[in-house]
Design a protein that fits this description.
Blueprint: H1 2-8, H2 11-26, H3 29-55
Length: 60
């Protein structure tokens, strides 16, 4: 499993992910929920932008 992770995610990004997770563990559950909600909103926005680009719709 670790070998697959090493192949899929560069070491530098793995270190950033580990640091982020260690911070998340220290946060209270409501704060983690807010961060997750914000992350989901950013992902949706990114997905919408990708879909608009694929359809050739200009943004702005």
């Amino acid at each position: 499993m670790a070998d697959a992770l090493d192949m899929a995610i560069p070491k530098e990004e793995q270190d950033e992910i580990k640091e982020f997770i260690s911070i998340l563990i220290l946060l209270p559950k409501p704060d983690r929920a807010i961060l997750l909600s914000n992350a989901n909103a950013l992902k949706v926005r990114s997905d919408i932008e990708k879909a608009m680009r694929a359809q050739g719709i200009k943004q702005g």
